[in-house]
């Protein structure tokens, strides 16, 4: 029996297919951080920690002449977003309805994606994870309040990376407001800002919901590692006459291998 307990839910296999397809369509858009870092795994539900390759301070052993040092590991975060679907909607899906209300699932998918994205870029101190923007040794580049100058600031960030011998191509991870400015605005010379920025980066501009600030980072590989235990999956909690309680769940950890491979835009 799988720990997700899906077989216990009053949901037909065809309706599970509808639910899973909806989750995949929502998450494929919202999981922006995965598009710009190295994703390893999934290594399974029982995978609980990442080897950091480091050891702690020497501690005394119970026998004279022997010493010991603890291996340092980074625990995986077990993240879960609960939601509830109406049984009337699930019944409609089983009959082939195309307008099934799965909005609670959509909200849960965005929420858990925001947690993963925020951890990658801004860290999660309670679980010992440092984010890309936190780890960067470079001073953040101030963007100011002129969107038409955004391309110049991005070019300056790329220059900082190149001066640190960090090769490209480069990507720009953005919040909602910066995404709107880039896709809808022009640079100081009147050219479409999106075209100009893509030419500077030689890489993608990625919407990453949940991050605190835009970040320019290298896509050369090996600098930022998102490790998955159990990749995002839907499990069953309980049900009553009116609804079925489900959840989205994943386990992951994140490490920065090369802090100098990213620059934040403030």
From TrEMBL:
* InterPro entries tied to this protein: ENCAP, Encapsulin_nc
Q: Which GO terms describe its cellular component?
A: encapsulin nanocompartment
Domain of life per record:
Bacteria
The places in or outside the cell where this protein is found are: Encapsulin nanocompartment
Cite the SUPFAM superfamilies for this sequence. Major capsid protein gp5
Q: Which UniProt keywords apply?
A: Encapsulin nanocompartment
* Family indicated by similarity: Belongs to the encapsulin family. Family 1 subfamily.
Name it.
Answer: Type 1 encapsulin shell protein
Organism encoding this protein: Microbacterium lacticum
